[in-house]
Amino acid sequence: MRNIHTKILSVLFSILLFGSLISCEGPGSDNSAAALLGLDIPASATKSQFLNRYADLAFESYTQAELDASTLAAAVTTFDSNTNPSASDLTNLRNLWVKARASYLVTEAFRFSQGPIDTDTVLDCEPTGSVSQPHDCEGLLNAWPLDEDAVDSYINDGGNSVTSFASIYGEIGDTNLGGEPEPQEDKIVLTGYHPIEYLLWGKDTSSTGAGNRAASDFADATTDGARRRHYLKTITDRLVVHLGLIKDQWDPANTGNYRETFLDSANVNISVGNIFQGLGSFMAGEWGGERLTGVIGETQEEEHSCFSDTTKADFYYDAQGVLNIWTGNYTIQKGVNISTGPGLSNILSFRQQGAIQSEIESSRNIFCINLSDTESEDPNFRTSCPSGSLTHRFDQAISSADSQHGILVNVQRLIGSTLNRDFVAAAAAIGFSVVPE
Amino acid sequence: MAPDPGEAFSGGYGTRFISNPTSFDTPVVNLSSDGIQFNTGNNFFNRAWVAEGNSASAGLGPTFNTSSCQNCHAGDGRGAPPDSGSLFGSVGILIRLSKVGVSDPTTGGPVGLDSFGLQLNHKGIGCTSPLSYDSNFNCIGSTGPNFTPPEGNVSVSYTGTTVVRNYTSGGTVTLNTPIYSFNWNVNFGGAPSSFHFSPRTAPIIPGLGLLEAIPESTILGWADPTDSNADGISGKVNMVWDAKNQKKVLGRFGWKANEPNLFQQNQGAFLGDIGITSPLFPTDNCPTNQTQCSAAASGTVDPEITASIAESVNFYTKLVAVPARRNLSDQDVIDGKTIFLSIKCDACHKPLVLTGNVPGLPELSYQYIKPYTDLLLHDMGPELADGRPDFDADGQEWRTPPLWGLGLIQQVNGHLKLMHDGRANGIEEAILWHGGEADAARTGFQNLSLTDRQKLIKFLESL
Questions:
Q1: Which of A134, B118, B178, B192 could staple A120 via S-S, CB 3.0–4.6 A?
Q2: Which is nearest to A60 in space by CA: A314, A259, A357, A353?
Q3: How far apart (Å, rounded) are the C-alpha atoms in residues B260 and B323?
Q4: How many CB atoms sit inside 10 A of residue B278's CB?
Q5: Residues of A with CB below 8 A from B28's CB?
Q6: Is ipTM > 0.85 here?
Q7: Could you read off the pLDDT of B273-287 as tens digits, one per residue?
Q8: What is the pTM of this model?
Q9: Phi-psi category of A251—alpha, beta or left, where left has phi over 0 and alpha has psi -120 to 50?
Q10: CB distance A290–B46 less than 8 Å?
Q11: Residue B432 — φ and ψ, nearest 5°?
C-alpha cells in the first residue's frame, strides 16, 4: 500500500492535468487517483490493437524462452563433451535451467487459449513421430509428474539409442494404445523441463530441500554416466526446437501461421474470447489450481518443481505472465519493462477492470523468491523478503503445521476465487463469457 | 403443445447451458462456495499419478488399471471398450472378479479371488515403458525397484451369440455379444478353477451429487420387488456395505447400485482402479500370494491421499453440473418424449425427481431434476446378464442408469458405446438390448413406425 501523502499528491496532480489524463492514459499507468475521484476512464485500446500487442507479446515471450533454453542447451553440449564434469559444471547447468524455466513460466499465461502452445490442430509438435495422433507442444515441454524410474530405465536400457529424439519420443504414451481419442491414455514423461530438472538435481529425498545429484553421475567412469549426458543433451536440444516451433506461429515475419488467423479482422471477437476463456482456465485450473493443490492436500509430494525446489518461482512467474497480458508490458524481472503496449485491461474501462491488477500483483509478490545465490541468476530476488511474503520453502509451508501455511491458503483463495471471480465479471462487462472448467 | 421451459434444467438450478466438448466438466451454476475446494478436487481428479518411490505425486499401484480418474472418465465423460482386442491400452473399461457361490458373511458382498482379488489389475509398477511385459507378465529388461507384475490381461471380441431384433414395420437389427478371453498371470497360479466376472465401463460424472440427494424414501417408494401392481416392472433396492459406518445401507452408485455413497465410491475407485490408498481404504490392494505387490507397498506411507484430498474429490464429484437439454422446441423431440412415456420407458427412467435436503449444500437441495433413473435394480434378462451377484443384485439385475447427458457423450468422448460393458453401438442398439422387465418397453419400441423410432431417439439425444 502506498502511503497517503503520495495518494493525495497524485490526486491533486491528476485534477490539474485532468484534461489530458484520458488521452495520456497509457498501459501500466496508475489509475488510483481517478478511483479516488470516482471517475471512470474509457477503454484506451481497441480489441484489434490489443490483439496485435498480445501477438507481439507472445512472440517476444517465446523468443526469450527459446533464447534462454538455447543458452542452457549450449552449456549442455559442452557438458556432454566432458567425460568427467565437475560439480561447478553441474551447478552452472542448474542456474541456467532456473533462468530458462523463469522465461518459460512467463509464457504459461498463453495456454488454454486455443493457440499453438496446447492446441494440436494449430501446431502438431512432433508430426513425424511414431505416435500417430497429433501431439501438442505443452505436453512435450511441461508434462508432470514424472516417473523417475521411466527416465532411468530409458537411460539404462542398452537397446535404445539415446542420441535419437525419435526413439525417446516413441516411448511417450502407451504403445499398446488402440484407436481411443486423447486423453484416454497413460502417458509417461520423458521430455521437457521436468525430466531435465530431474537429471540436473536428482531424486528429492530431502524433506526440506532440493534433490542433490552428484556430478559424478555424469562421468564416463560411472554406469550410464555418458548415456545420462547424451539423454540430457537430446531432450534439451529438442526443448529449444519445440519452443522455436511455437515462436514461429507468432512470428510477424511469417505468413500462413497462427498469428495471421488470430489477427484476421473477421476473428477479433473469437480471439478475444479465447484469451478471456484461456486466462480464466489458467487461473482456476493451473496457476491457482493444479500448482496449489498441495495446500489442501498438505503433502510434500505435491510440490510441483520438487527436484530443484524452485516451486515458488512457478507461482511468481506464472503471475508475471498473467500480469504481462493484462498490462501489455513484457516483464520478467520485477519492475523492468522490456517492452510495452496495450494490454487486455486497456480494452476495458477503468471501472470494468476492477481490482484485477492489484490482485495479480499481490498474488505474485507473496512469493518472495528466496533461492540461494548458487541457484539463481536473477538479482532481483537475492535481497531480503518483504514482510507478509512467503519466506519459508514451499515444501515446508505446504504443511498446515508450518506458521506460513495460512499465506498459501490465502493466495490460493486470492487467485482461484477472488481474482477469478473478478476476471469473469470483467469479461462479462464487455460481453465475453468465461466458463469455469 | 409448447415445451415446458423447465424441461431444459436437467440438473435443477445448477444446470449449465453448454454443449461442447467440456459439457461434462463444469461446476454447477449455483456453486455458492468460493470454488477452491471444487478446483482442488478437479485437479486431483485429473491428476496423473506415478509409481511409489517417485518424488512427486506418487502412489500409483502397485497394481492398477490406469493412472488417473480422468483417463477413464475422459472430459468427465464415458469410458468405452476397444472395438476388439486387448484391454491393456484401452482405459474406460475394467473387469470385476469374484468367487462362485459365496458372499462375505459380514458385508453380504462378493468375495475376491484368492490370487487376483475383486478386480483384474492389468498393469503393475516398476516396468514402465520403454520396458514391457513378456507373456508371463514379467518385466523385460531391467526392472524398477518396486516391480510388481500385473495380474493378467483380458481381450474382447464381438463374436459371441448374436441377438436379432425385428421391427414390426420391417427391418431387423443384429446385436453382437461380447466375448472376453482371459490371460492370467501364471505366477499367481494361472486361471482360477471357477470365477465370476463383470466388465464395467466408466460412467459420466455430471449430476452425481444430485443422485446422492434423492431421498431414500423416494427410491423406496418406487421399489416394487414383488411387482405388486403387476405392471411387469419390479424394481429392487440393493442393500450394500457402508464401510465407514460398518452396516448395510441402500446402494445407489455403480452399474449394480453396489456403492452406498460417493465418498465410498470415489475412494473405492482410487484403490481398485489406480492403487491409491485413502483414509477409508488405507491398505494396498495386494492379494496375499502376490508377494512383490506386498513388498512394493511396504515402502510407502499409507494412506496415500489425505482426508482433505479425499474430501475435495468427493466435493468435486458432487458438484459437477448437468448440462441443459437442447432442441426443446423441435417438434420431433416433443413427440419423442410423448412416445417415451407411451411405451413406458419412464417406469424405470424417471423423468422428474425432487431432491431432499443436503446439509451445507443448498446447490443440491430441494431441486427438481430430470435424471431419468430410479436407481433401482431390475432384471434385464439373460442376454445382458453377467452372472455375477453383487450384494442383493443377482447376475441378471442391473441398476437403471441415468440418461441425462446422453446426447452429449458423442461430442465429449467421440463414441457412443452404451450399456454396462459398452456393447451397444448407439442409442438404438441400447434400447434393443433391453430385456427381462424391459421386454414390454422394448417390444413397444419394435412396434413403432420408423418415424416414431427416430423421434424417440431425437428426444433421447436432447437429454
A1: A134
A2: A259
A3: 25
A4: 23
A5: none
A6: yes
A7: 999 999 999 999 999
A8: 0.92
A9: beta
A10: yes
A11: -70, -20
